Structures are given as structure tokens and as C-alpha cells.
Description:
Layout: H1 2-71, H2 75-113, H3 122-142
Helix pairs in contact: 1-2, 1-3
Amino acid sequence: MAFDSLSDNIEKSGSKAQEYLKNSSEYYKLRSFKTISKTVISLVTFLTVGIFLLLVLFFFSVGAALWLGDIIDSRYAGYFIVGGFYILIILIILLFGKKSIEKLILTKFSDIFFDNDSDPEPDVLTSIMANKEEKKEEKNEEI
């Protein structure tokens, strides 16, 4: 009797371990899908907004170059002044702003990848999946 009970417990623990591994792998598949989806959505949003901002910047730059060209009576000089302004901005960013831009990007993507607030813990997910399995077994027993 005791030996039968022990073997039943060993069989149950083996099946529970397999069930836990299956549920854990499903959890991590879902979590990686969520992370990849959030990353792709962020990149698409960033690229879309970036493209429209570049278009706006382009038209403002052409307008500023034409306006400056009319003021100094040389369209070429207007374009060179606007181009020089952008070269100056790029140099300032490279010299002083590189670290802050890197920090901003790392912070944004670490928020996406390591977002643990909305995810249920694996133990909670395991208990949910175990309850679903028990309900399925009960339905099978009734039939």
C-alpha cells in the first residue's frame, strides 16, 4: 500500500514537472513574442515619425535657403549658409550630445525589453495553465 502510494506520488511529480516545463516554455514564447512585437512597433513608429519630420525639415530648409538667398541676393549663398548651419549642429551633437542620445535610446529599449510590470509571473501562469488542464481532465472524465 505505502509502496503504491509512493509510486503514484512519483508519477504525479514527474507529470507535474513535465507540465511545468511545457507551461514555462509557452510563457517564454509568449513573452518573447510580446517583446519582439513591442520592438517592431516602436521601430515602425519611430521611422514613420522620422520620415515625416525629415520631410518637414527639408521643406523648411529649402524655404530658409531661398529666403536667405533673396536677402543677400545670392541663392547659392543661402543654400551654403543653411548647409553650414546643419554642419554646425552635427558637430555640436557629436562633441557634446552623443552620450545623452545613447542614454535616451538605451533607456527606451530597456523599458521595452525589461517590462515586468504587466507580465504575470511564471508561477501565476503555471497555476492558470494547471487549472485549465484540470478542467479539461474533469470534462474528459464526465464524458
